Amino acid sequence: MNEREQIVYDEYKALGYDVIKAGVPDLILLKDGVISFVEVKSELHKLSEYQERAFKLLEKHGFSVKIERVTPKPLSREDTDYDFLMKSMTRRERNEYINLPYPERMKVMDKWSRCRKAF
Question: What predicted TM-score, i.e. pTM, was given to this entire model?
């Protein structure tokens, strides 16, 4: 959280608000004036500590929070190395990869390409 966000966060907390910065569900559903939330997870991934906290706060305030478990389509030989890499990573890993300097991304891609040959 940057300094400006921290100032506003602290102000709202001091006013008695529950504030969610991390762990917000993937989808916000709006229908007929009702808001509900959906977190999409694979069968293997579990909620983070931040997500558990955020979901409890949302439910405390009367919002519906669902966890939808989705099995992604299996990787196939037709996938490019980049597709293979992206489908093999969690969202956090993808974000870390995307933010790497170019030479470091190429090292990761090379490593994954070698792993793919074994696939």
Answer: 0.56
